[in-house]
From TrEMBL:
GO terms for cellular component: cytosol. Residues 2-235 form the Starch synthase catalytic domain. The keyword Repeat does not apply. It comes from Thermohalobaculum xanthum. This is Glycogen synthase. It comes from the Bacteria. Keywords: Glycogen biosynthesis, Glycosyltransferase, Transferase. Synthesizes alpha-1,4-glucan chains using ADP-glucose. Its EC number is 2.4.1.21. GO terms for molecular function: alpha-1,4-glucan glucosyltransferase (ADP-glucose donor) activity; alpha-1,4-glucan glucosyltransferase (UDP-glucose donor) activity. Pathway: Glycan biosynthesis; glycogen biosynthesis. It is an enzyme of class 2 (transferase). Residues 292-449 form the Glycosyl transferase family domain. Pfam families: Glyco_transf_5, Glycos_transf_1.
């Protein structure tokens, strides 16, 4: 079974969020299921630099201009890079410049990526034809549209929605430049409220649609969560399913993590206290406080609900808690958290930026991770939290609802709790959840039991890789 992934980010080359973790880790888990995965990525500088034993498949003409397809190994993955320096070799991020402004040619950049995916699906590499084309998010969403426009045999297509909030919407004037058939600019095509919708086109034409948790798959079909695509998803409900994300349990392992001062495990926890001391020193937090050290590692956006935390933080600090926050995003939220850190530097530390190594130390050193998301397709940081004994405090939505067992009295009594869940997603409910966290913290034996249990949860890719294999088998067969 050969599967071609196509995506716009992938660890360790380029990452703005969880999509990169999934695309980087799932291929190895699928290999264990007997699936051969190649990953098509834009030829960003770090991708091209990492390619070993690269061979050029040949030139291809894309809507973004001429490009080359280059195949090689990089960081343990089989990669096909779309080498088009004019599109992808730039300073800044994968979607925006160093000032955070979207690149003005994003429609061309990701139409080129989609175009390359379609070409590979139809045999651009004669020696490696995929049985399934597996696309991730809007940046690859035009691939099923291009395949629909073409004749000739094609493999089955799967589109995974990692976040329906990002839809790749562009004005109708791009139809010509992107080489799209005008007849597709309709409700049953790639048109979305007068615009060209990359994700919309994929949801119409992909053979299967998955998202990253069963609960989010259901939520997506409701007006509250579907962001205008719920009707289409209800229409296609027989091909929609939710497969829970896992994490790379080798990269995220407190027994071997080089970012921690000392290894630890559920059996030998001394290293967790050492990680807490290292984190306190690094962030200038006071030691010896009576409550838990709460962490945030997140994009600071409306989705993540961290404005609610800013609101209830004084109440949590009054109970002896502390906060360590690592994130970037909305300037208003950054400023709000910075102000709280300046007002109370012993108890609140805020690092604005993206720092992978610090993220690891935070999961190691903190007692709990706060994820008050308004919606969350799956979420990975609660899984990192479970694995590192950093108890998740989560909104009961999407994948958060599917992966954390609330420490209510019944769950504590039967010994199944792994964190705290709350609903509705309001400041009041989050405040109550943090009070419950402090109560659990005060009951030291119950806290330790919950922490050890959290660390024993199966958070790897094994179960879900088998589910993807079954999905591919059903399609290719
Ligand atoms: N400042 C920072 N410094 C270092 N690391 C940082 C960071 N900010 C965030 N990260 C890291 O970025 C990743 C975020 O992944 P998430 O799954 O939590 O959310 P995201 O919304 O990006 O992903 C979307 O796609 C994923 C993958 O399917 C879904 O799980 C999720 O629900 C969906 O919203 C984690 O690895 C986290 O540690």
């Amino acid at each position: 079974m050969r599967v071609l992934f196509a995506a716009s980010e992938c660890v360790p080359f380029v990452k703005t969020g969880g999509l990169a973790d999934v695309v980087g880790a799932l291929p190895a888990a699928l290999a264990a299921e007997g699936v051969e995965v190649r990953v098509l990525l834009p030829g960003y500088g770090p991708v091209m630099a990492a390619l070993e034993g690269a061979a050029t498949l040949g030139p291809i003409e894309t809507p973004g201009g001429p490009a080359r397809l280059v195949v090689g190994r990089a960081a343990g993955l089989d990669v096909v890079a779309l080498d088009a320096p004019a599109l992808f070799d730039r300073p800044g991020g994968p979607y925006s410049d160093t000032a955070g402004r979207d690149w003005p040619d994003n429609h061309l950049r990701f139409a080129a990526l989609s175009h390359a995916a379609a070409a590979l699906a139809q045999g651009a590499d004669r020696d490696w034809r995929p049985d399934v084309l597996h696309l991730h998010d809007w940046q690859t969403g035009l691939a099923p549209v291009y395949l629909h426009q073409r004749t000739g045999p094609r493999p089955a297509t799967v589109l995974t929605i990692h976040n329906v909030a990002f839809q790749g919407l562009f004005p109708a004037s791009v139809i010509g430049p992107l080489g799209l058939d005008r007849s597709g600019f309709a409700q049953d095509g790639y048109e979305f409220w007068g615009k060209v919708g990359f994700l919309k086109g994929a949801l119409v034409h992909a053979d299967r649609i998955t998202t990253v948790s069963p609960t989010y798959a259901r939520e997506l079909m409701t007006p509250e969560f579907g962001m205008g695509l719920d009707g289409l998803l209800r229409h296609r409900r027989t091909v929609v399913s939710g497969i829970l994300n896992g994490i790379d349990t080798r990269a995220w392992d407190p027994e071997t993590d080089p970012a921690l001062p000392r290894p630890y495990s559920a059996r030998a926890m001394a290293g967790k206290a050492a990680a807490r001391r290292a984190l306190e020193r690094r962030l200038g937090l006071a030691a010896g406080m009576p409550g838990p050290l709460l962490a945030v590692v997140s994009r600071l956006t409306e989705q993540k609900g961290l404005d609610l935390l800013a609101e209830v933080l004084p109440r949590f600090l009054a109970r002896g808690g502390r906060l360590a926050l690592l994130g970037t995003g909305a300037t208003g939220l950054e400023a709000a958290f910075r102000a709280q850190a300046e007002a109370d530097p012993d108890r609140v530390a805020v690092v604005i930026g993206f720092d992978e190594a610090l993220a690891h130390l935070i999961f190691g050193g903190a007692d709990a991770i706060c994820i008050p998301s308004r919606f969350e397709p799956c979420g990975l940081t609660q899984l990192y939290g479970l694995r590192y004994g950093c108890l998740p405090v989560v909104a009961r939505t999407g994948g958060l609802a599917d992966t954390v067992i609330d420490a209510n009295p019944a769950a504590l009594a039967t010994g199944v709790a792994t964190g705290i869940q709350f609903a509705p997603v309001t400041a009041a409910a989050l405040g109550d959840a943090l009070d419950r966290l402090c109560d659990l913290w005060a009951d030291r034996p119950a806290w330790r039991r919950t922490m050890r249990r959290a660390m024993g949860q199966p958070v790897g890719w094994e179960v879900s890789a088998a589910a993807y294999r079954a999905l591919y088998d059903g399609l290719a067969g």
